[in-house]
Design goal:
Elements (H helix, E strand, L loop, with lengths): L2 E2 L6 H4 L4 E2 L3 E6 L5 H14 L4 E5 L4 H10 L5 H6 L2 E4 L1 H14 L25 E5 L10 H17 L3 E7 H6 L4 H4 L2 E9 L6 E10 L9 E6 L2 E4 L3
Parallel strand pairs: 3-7, 3-8, 4-5, 4-6, 6-7
Antiparallel strand pairs: 1-2, 8-9, 9-10, 10-11
Length: about 240
């Protein structure tokens, strides 16, 4: 199976050469664990290699995403201006729609959080690499059964179109949906923040929980987020 570079030095070697092309990888993590940086690393590398890419942003504005990536050594602005990278403004649409409903006295905005499979329609036909961050916002009032049906349909649609995708979900949403997303995707990575019992310091760790058809190590890798992106501290 062809592999796509992750954009993180050392991670490619850990997972057999990179993310499997045309498959969906899930990243699960808490706030501040580095899950978005892992996803942006993939998109930055894809753009560097000339692949048309898309970020579907449900929690941030395009300018904030570009600023965040630039602060860790990944300049996405040039790719965004050239059109090689597109940023779908789902976050802006959600906030505008919510304000419009409230202006008419409507307080039930649950439908804003329910159309996961509809994200497929937002991906142009020439896109090869996609980052969806964060899919958890669509699950706030969704049953486990509905979420399973929608996430399965989304992943199947992405695979059919041979799009290599990073799908991010926050830990609270993953727990709320009974960890279902992990069964639908081809691979799962989990960045986390934990206290080192020996030093008392807080550390970031990256675990590869699964990559189908790939021999992986289950040992977590310590990493830091630096001005040059994610850097592993041990292998």
């Amino acid at each position: 199976m062809e592999r796509i570079h992750t954009g993180i030095t050392g991670l490619d070697e850990m997972i057999g050469g990179g993310y499997p092309k045309g498959r969906t990888i899930l990243i699960i993590g808490t706030t501040g664990s580095g899950k978005t940086i892992v996803g942006l690393s993939f998109i930055h590398k894809a753009c560097m290699e000339g692949r048309k890419s898309l970020i579907i942003a449900s929690e941030e504005l395009p300018g904030d995403i570009i600023a965040q990536s630039g602060s860790v050594g990944m300049d996405l602005e040039g790719f965004y201006k050239s059109g090689l990278l597109a940023i779908d403004k789902v976050y802006e649409e959600r906030t505008v729609f919510a304000r419009e409903l409230l202006s008419y006295g409507k307080t039930d905005t649950d439908k804003l959080q329910s159309n996961i499979v509809g994200l497929l329609e937002r991906i142009p036909p020439d896109v090869e690499s996609v980052l969806i961050d964060n899919i958890g916002v669509f699950t706030l009032n969704m049953s486990a059964n509905e979420f399973r049906a929608q996430i399965d349909s989304l992943v199947a649609g992405l695979t059919k179109r041979n799009i290599t995708t990073i799908l991010i979900i926050d830990l609270s949403a993953d727990n709320r949906t009974e960890n279902i997303a992990s069964y639908s995707v081809y691979g799962v990575l989990r960045p986390s923040i934990k206290d080192n019992p020996f030093t008392g310091a807080r550390e970031r760790l990256l675990e590869v929980l699964k990559i189908r058809n790939t021999k992986i190590s289950l040992s977590p890798i310590r990493f830091e987020i630096t001005s040059k992106g994610i850097e592993f501290l041990n292998k």
